[in-house]
Amino acid sequence: MRKTAAKLLTAAALATSLVSVASGTAMADPSVVPATQDIVGVGSDTTQTVLNQFSTDYNAYLTGLGDTTSPRLYSFDATGSATITAKAGTTAFARPNGSGAGITALNQTSPSVLPIDFARSSRAPQTGDLTTDIFVGFAKDAVTWSAKSTGSNAPANLTTADLKNIYNGTYTTWNQITDIAGYTGPNVTIKPYLPQASSGTRSFFLKAIGVTTLGANVVTGPEENEGTDVALNDANVIFPYSVGHYVGQVYGGHSSGTDAAGVLSLRSINGVAPLTASNTINPTFANPTYGRTLYNVVRNAEWTATTTKGIALRNIFGTSGWICTNGAADIASYGFLTIGGCGSTTHI
Amino acid sequence: MSRTSVRLAATAATAVLAVTGLSGAAAADTTPAPATAASGSVVVHESTAFIQQTAAAGVVVVPLPSGQPGYDSATGFSATFPATGGDANLQAYYDKIDLGGGLLFVNLLTGRTAIFKQLAFQADTWKLTGVPLGATAPVNLLSPAGDNQIGRTGTTQTLEASDLKVDAEGAQYVDGKLNTTFFQGGQSIGSLSISFTPAG
């Protein structure tokens, strides 16, 4: 019995190793229409690419074990076609874009419950969320601000107070910034941009800098974590950016189409650089103010159930699940930090 | 057996004195006290199975002051360590909770001991750590596992872990000190409850 168990473990370890080495290319959207029993997610732009990689690698892992029956993992991007068909035999619905939209979709009951099982979220639980939603942590990210890599009027560093004053409309020109040593800004209008309203990165950034009411000059619009929007190609633009997503795009080789850093590069806050010398998230920067946990949100009733779905959710997202035991390489490759408490849950 | 008991009592007394002495040294710290001190505790619940396994192996694990042993008919044996500092943010997996007391491991058959002081729960690595007596670097001792639920009410944070496993590093260290082969990385010892309110 022990020999069998040991053999099984060796086989599993080998399979895991092979998957890690020979993992396939992550798909933007599932290449097949998921089956009814599969685990399907929508939501955050920040974590869409790493979830796509998880999907590819987890499904290959199951196949490598000869498991043809367990539910597979699929994830739909935040952007793409206007509608998606999440599972076979279900009606198409509007593609949720962002953490908030994903969570809303997860909880939709009218006119019908949507065929999704989890929402990707780059923000923590907040007032207004349902207590029946469970946020399952899997990695750590940080959010900073970005500006044009060359020719920008922005300094290399801003304080939290500067960012607050820029986004609440108190500072409208660069020369109003007077607390950055060696920087004298021109008397030129600052163009503060934010991602679309359902963006978890947007809500996290505004909370971090303490802004509840936006200045009249703040522009909402560009897709988050993309520096390819033509509006951002401006010497006076600043734009929040996921540090991890940036690392994945620029240093992990995970840029694709418009999902790229483009003309933008990351800047410091309070004199702390968001990146280490080896181009990973700076753990000091990822403090509780500018660091954030990345989650997948599930319904508690399903998470705790002994059904096929409940078992599958825990096998994928739980403390002993695939992501927490095999996903470290994917997490690092896509620019994020692993967390010791992977699979821990929280709720509002 | 009585000789073993005498040896154990002497060893434990020495250990307690040693740790108490260190606590006294720590009390000389001149850092200004916050308006409200950190409060709460970390409770290690030991399963009946683990207690039986340690007894069969001739190993006992004792919390040292200001840690407190406990027993409840519903939950069994436990060790409670008071939160004394740190600025842990459990939801953000950041910083740590400093704990009072220490941990004493004794090999009843030989009287050999392993003593840990400066216990802490590291929110970034999700491990309970301790600094071996006479050393400076912490050793990973225990890791929450199973179902981990993080909560927050006001400034008080909580963690309930349905399983608590021995860390491989701690297992190797303690086995080495006790000259046993009892501890294994991944060995389940029970569960963990944390309640923590940072200094304010």
UniProtKB/TrEMBL annotation, chain A:
Q: Where is the signal peptide?
A: 1-28
Pfam families listed in its UniProt record: PBP_like_2
**Coiled-coil stretches:** none
Q: Does this entry carry the keyword Methyltransferase?
A: no
- UniProt domain PBP: residue ranges: 39-212
Annotated keywords = Signal
Q: What is this protein called?
A: PBP domain-containing protein
Native organism is Kitasatospora indigofera
From TrEMBL, chain B:
**What start and end residues bound the annotated signal peptide?**
1-28
Q: Which organism is it from?
A: Kitasatospora indigofera
What is the protein's given name? Secreted protein
What highest taxon heads this organism's lineage? Bacteria
Which UniProt keywords are given for this protein, alphabetically ordered? Signal
